Amino acid sequence: LALIDPRHSCTRCGAPFGDLLCTECSVEGSSSAMAEALDRCLACAVYTHPLPRIIKAYKDAGERRLAPYLAELLYDTALHAQAAAPDRLGGVLSGADAVVFVPATAAAFRRRGFDHMEAIARPFCGLSGVPLLDALVKYGHGDQRELGREERRERARGMYETVEDVRGRRLLLIDDVITTGATMAAASAELKRAGAAAVDGLAIARVW
Q: What number of other Cβ atoms are within 10 A of residue 130's Cβ?
């Protein structure tokens, strides 16, 4: 895996090189929505071989047995970030009141037969001791892999609804892949609209 060093990653979007300037989060860049919605963001590795094959096998080829291993990967990423970069990512896990996962749409759930992030979130919470809060519902068409940046951002608007009480809570929002950040930004913005005190993002992979 092409691991991302939390001492040098962009805390806004999880990009691997952001301690000086992340080009996607610059003033004239296009990740401002993500920067405004998420308090901090962290990703385990760059979305390059072998992660695309692993994630596709898990989500679309029935390899559900990978869920606990992906959960452990996320858990180790958060633990390492807290220890290696406490000034930047301290408390990203230990300071969370609850873990929220980015949910699948109803259509994706029917197609796959399971919610891929819920299946990761449950063992992740078992490892971390942070309670799981199934707080979000996702509407519309969920597969955005063929969409461009602007299309992803436009589709993500209004896609989520908060269905649990998140008022005053510090949340850790987990997902599998950050591509443009539109999904994380929209989900985080909805959680904050519902009263969350803070939302940090944690993902397995960051497209770069």
A: 21
Q: What's the mean pLDDT when you consider all of the chain?
A: 90
- Distance, C-alpha 52 to centroid of its chain: 16
Q: Which amino acid is at 98?
A: A
Domain 23-206: CATH architecture, name and number where available: 3-Layer(aba) Sandwich (3.40)
Give the per-residue SS3 of the chain. CCECCCCCCCCCCCCCCCCCCCHHHCCCCCCHHHHHHCCEEEEEEECCCCHHHHHHHHHHCCCHHHHHHHHHHHHHHHHHHHHHCHHHHCCCCCCCCEEEECCCCHHHHHHHCCCHHHHHHHHHHHHHCCCECCCEEECCCCCCCCCCHHHHHHHHCCCEEECCCCCCCEEEEEEEEECCCHHHHHHHHHHHHCCCCEEEEEEEEECC
Please write the tens of the pLDDT for every residue from 8-42: 999 999 999 887 667 777 655 445 566 678 999 99
How far is the first Cα of the chain from the last one, in angstroms, to the nearest whole number? Answer: 14
Rounding to the nearest 10 degrees, give the CA dihedral for residues 103, 152, 172, 17.
Answer: 140
Relative to beta strand 136-138, strand 160-162 is antiparallel
The amino acid that residue 63 corresponds to is E
